[in-house]
Amino acid sequence: WLGESAQLKYPMQGDLLSPFLLQDLDGDGEQDAAVLYTTAQSTNVCVAILQRDDAGTWQVRQSVEGLADTVENVSLAQLQAGEARQLVIGYTAAQDDRYLAVYSYEDGELSTILEQQYEQYLVEDITGGGSQDLILMSTQEDGSVQIELLTVDKEGGFQQMAVTGLSADKFSGCASVAAGAGADGKHYLVLDGWTGISGNNLA
Fold it and tell me: Most buried among 74, 113, 158, 203, using CB within 10 Å?
């Protein structure tokens, strides 16, 4: 399909460590494939979506260029109602900048529904709406940590629903984030943040 050899790109960490992701992405009951690769012509990682034709042969339906040359991690999420799954890919650039992209594949069309810089992210149903939500953590220029909640609105669109922040005198960055339910049944986020004068301590 490319007319040249593709170099497969393996995610650096996470639960999904293969350059091939087999999943029913569009919710039609048939397995699709997403492939992470680069070529001699592309600086950044590309994402190709493949489907089987009537003869059972895999065919590329569409491809998009990603946001950097390294894949940090990949996850599958159900951010919208229905059977479809979205592809969540974290990219890392040479300067250790991280960018998150969320891809949706429906009706034979691959679309990007989010592109944003981030430090850590979490896919979790924290609003209790049935679909998963996306929590993004990023460090601002003044050193404060920003927390964004992106979820599906009543019209089915995926958008930012809440933003909060932790001042720079508390944390100088986010090391990891997790979610859980408290004894009161409410959902909570737990943040491991960098702190201290050197910024090398965890709290």
Answer: 74
pLDDT for 73: 92
Mean pLDDT of 178-200: 84
142: which 2 tokens?
């003044």
177 near 166, Cβ under 8 Å? no
The dihedral sign for the CA sequence 4, 10, 11, 12: negative
Out of 7-16, 47-56, 111-120, least confident range: 111-120
d(CA 74, CA 16): 6
